[in-house]
Fold this protein.
Amino acid sequence: MGIDLSTPLQYLKGVGPRKAADLKRAGLVTVEDLLYRFPFRYEDRSHMQPIASLRPDMRAAVLGEIKSARLAITRRRGFKIFNAIVSDTSGAIRCTWMNQPFLADVLQPHAAVVIFGDVKLDSSGLHFLNPEYELVVEDALGVHTGRIVPFYEKTGTVTPNMQRRLVRHALDALPAALPEILPDALRTRLHVEPRRAAIEASHFPPNDASIEELNAFRTPAQRRLIFEEFFLFQIGHAWRRHAALTEIKPHVPKVDDRIRAAAARILPFKLTPGQRQAVKEIVEDMQRPQPMNRLLQGDVGAGKTIVALLAALVAMENGLQVAFMAPTEILAAQHYRTIAGLLAASRFRVDLLTGSTPGLEKHTLHAHVERGTTNFVVGTHALVQENVRFHRLGLVVIDEQHRFGVEQRAALRAKGLHPDVLLMTATPIPRTLALTDYSELDVSKITDLPPGRTPVRTWVKPESRRDEIYQLLRDELDRGRQAYIIYPLVEDSEKIDLKSATEMADHLQAEVFPAYRVALLHGRMKPDAKERVMSAFAGGQVHILVSTTVVEVGVDVPNASIMVVEHAERFGLSQLHQLRGRVGRGPWESHCVLLYQSPWTDDARERLKALAATSDGFVIAEKDLELRGPGDVFGTRQSGLPRLRTGDLVRDREVMEDAHREARRLVADGGLTGELLEFVQQRWEPQFGLIEVG
Ligand code: ADP
Ligand code: MG
């Protein structure tokens, strides 16, 4: 029977309507779905070990028959041990499973079975302890034993065993060659094997393949398929980037001496070399006919705001409007204060637009923005949600951009006619992700910090040392500094074991620091109440700010020199790094105290140690990625992350680098034609509205 990759699985041998429905529920509809679901591990069953040759501490596979089986229940309540004796022609061995009583139904006498695992020796003799097992049913296909065997994830009612058989059937029914989507020239240059062979060898590797390489997904066959997947992803980005080069802005800013002088007038300090370089790159982009699409990366406190403001000045001096979007009201208000202050002496009008701007004011503000009398509007996502129309939007700045969804960024961009876009982030983007989500952006990095900063001293302390910490805090306050005390979310009422930040603020005020002013800030407060507290803290009238993580990003109060994080063991690594970035912004030595409550998990210990060991955001981001995986680090909001079938962003990061390079090269050389172009258009065009701003 002739089939191809798009054939529905129900036409495969052995698949009836019932099984097809099961497969569909497991996400497998076509032959391609089946074949591109890789095994998650491989086991070498090409050499079955005779049972008589087993020795303690071996890892071995045996093929035998179950002679007897017995479920024993120990006196300890509910503790069940299942023992089976398995024999082959050379001998017999006991297999023991703890607390898997259902095995009594699965592994019954006379069944043929493959046992794979660690051989142990104790006073009761040689045995397998909790080994893998698999019943050997009919194996006419020779897929279950006598070879390197693939193991598939069980999904729903689709068992690993069934998948193994189906994959074999599918491979047998497919033609000897499959259409190649990678261009010939690329395949020749990279010496990649044909697609058909790579699929075969990824499921049923030849017996001389290395089991270690297979399980690391590093055989040429596996890497070839992973490369293909990554390449098809990268080619979309490369194409998008290429297409952007043909877009033309209606207004191209110019920079002259008058503008340089205006910039010099608003600058409150001397730029660091890193900031100067970033400004240069950004302003060069702005003067090009194509819209800028640039990401400004700089660790917390590196001074990104002023860089954005200088870019904004260039736009405004050229008669263009600027929209500056921040992820929280607190941050938007802070930016508004800073920016309005620096532009006070200029002729430009700055406004703040957030969800809590009162209706009437909002109405007037919209009119100003639409007429162009507002030159610079700072705001939250209200800038995209509300009915805001710009007169001549030339520059969009998105601060802490990782906090926004892809859609929100795209919506703001769509308000301008091809405006320049500057994304800013303090969350360093690990290389792997930079190559995926951010693949088509240009990147500027500020790697230095403003002068006079001393690194924050980080302390990891058990909660029992609280008194010492309060003393440290008091010393800082006595020197005229201010403090943050951070709590995990109080909003989460189930977490009653967490001290309520509210109670704690009262306690600190009344009993511990009566001479100082303590204030509370949390996400449940009304926006104007938040703003009052924040500006009192920024103005120095509040000395200790007890807060939830609402101050996590962007907040800038240079006089604050100490932060105490309660229940630090509950925070993620990147989050702690962001929090810590709130101190160390002035010339004083600053402290970050991570209080933990024992017992803590190994993970928590590793996180806190990692944080204490380095202040380098990149090192921390890589570590975080390693500990949690990309999905968790970047959250579900990053819908730009590819859903991968064969590859893994962390495990296969060099493959992604190759794919990135090759895709850009192919597009630049004009090699994106024919079927590949059709594929890219079909797959990516519907998404490009969203991908546009990275
Ligand atoms: P981030 O990159 O985290 O957004 P900010 O833009 O908030 O950093 O800047 C952090 C602090 O450093 C602010 O108080 C800012 O005024 C100050 N700052 C920025 N650049 C310089 C500089 N070149 N010299 C001195 N202080 C600076
Ligand atoms: Mg910032």
Observations:
- The two ends are 45 Å apart (CA to CA).
- The pocket of magnesium ion (ligand 2) is lined by residues 304-305, 399, 554 (CB under 6 Å).
